[in-house]
UniProtKB/TrEMBL annotation:
GO molecular function: ATP binding; ATP hydrolysis activity
Region (Disordered): 1-25
Protein name: ABC transporter domain-containing protein
Example of a GO biological process term: response to antibiotic
Main location: membrane
Length: 242
């Protein structure tokens, strides 16, 4: 896990600051930039001035307890829920002022029950590719690659309804990747997943970031696949990252 704690003052902080200046680091413009994001449902402030950056080629984990506002924050990043205040930019594209363009850059992993399970794994991926605008040949190639990467090649002809929980999670991850997004958004992706499936998913995420993709992942506890972790509490994202 990469360590980068922002300094807040004091001798220790100054020392860390000096070390940060003297250590050469790869500087990456953030793929996702969130600033002062806020959302309220009735009287309840659910996201309260949240800000964060996801650097290119990284997995950033948002970790917080149930009800801390993670899902709401993700919904504003993926363009599903308009914020009351604040900005979301993906590669400099404003997620709300340039909604359609931004949505082409971002993909969210769907919930298991949000994919049509009467399709086979292969049919599902090809269909998702076609819907995303790929031509038939590219969609079929992408489906084949993702079926192999997610360990589902042997099950590609079975309907998703026949898949185990872990297989469903893997095919859902594949559906999010089929159109090659720049930013992948995952809400509790490993919940209830067997360890073999989770390990395969982590490998898929690592190859996605190795090719320059970025991931924003929310969960209730820190995940080993994360390069950076930010704590979320009562709708606020802690400035410290580790
Ligand atoms: N559409 C909505 N209308 C009213 N309240 C909502 C709505 N969506 C979320 N909330 C409330 O906002 C709060 C934060 O919910 P959210 O799902 O964002 O938290 P979370 O951190 O993702 O929790 P979990 O880890 O359980 O998924 C909760 O109290 C929830 O009841």
């Amino acid at each position: 896990m990469r360590t980068s704690v922002r300094t807040t003052g004091g001798a220790g902080a100054r020392e860390r600051g000096r070390r940060a200046v003297s250590t050469p680091q790869r500087v990456q413009a953030p793929v996702l930039r969130v600033r002062a994001l806020a959302k309220q449902f009735g009287d309840q402030v659910v996201v309260d001035g949240a800000g964060l950056d996801v650097p290119g080629g990284s997995v950033l984990g948002l970790v917080g307890p149930a009800g801390s506002g993670k899902t709401t924050l993700l919904a504003m990043v993926t363009g599903l829920l308009p914020p009351d205040e604040g900005t979301v930019q993906v590669l400099g594209v404003d997620a709300w002022a340039q909604h359609a363009r931004a949505r082409q850059l971002v993909a969210a992993m769907p919930d298991d029950d949000a994919v049509p399970d009467s399709l086979t794994g292969r049919e599902l991926l090809i269909w998702k590719g076609l819907v995303a605008g790929l031509d038939a040949r590219t969609a079929a190639e992408a489906a084949g690659l993702l079926l192999r990467a997610t360990g589902l090649a042997e099950a590609e002809g079975r309907t998703v309804a026949e898949y185990t929980v872990g297989m469903r999670r893997r095919i859902c991850l594949a559906t999010a990747l089929v159109r090659r997004p720049k930013l992948l958004v995952l809400d509790d992706p490993f919940a209830g997943v067997d360890e073999d499936s989770a390990a395969t998913m982590r490998v898929v995420l690592r190859s996605f970031t190795a090719e320059g993709g970025s991931v924003l992942l929310a969960s209730r506890s820190a995940e080993s696949v994360c390069d950076l972790v930010c704590a979320v509490e009562r709708g606020r994202v802690a400035t410290g990252q580790r």
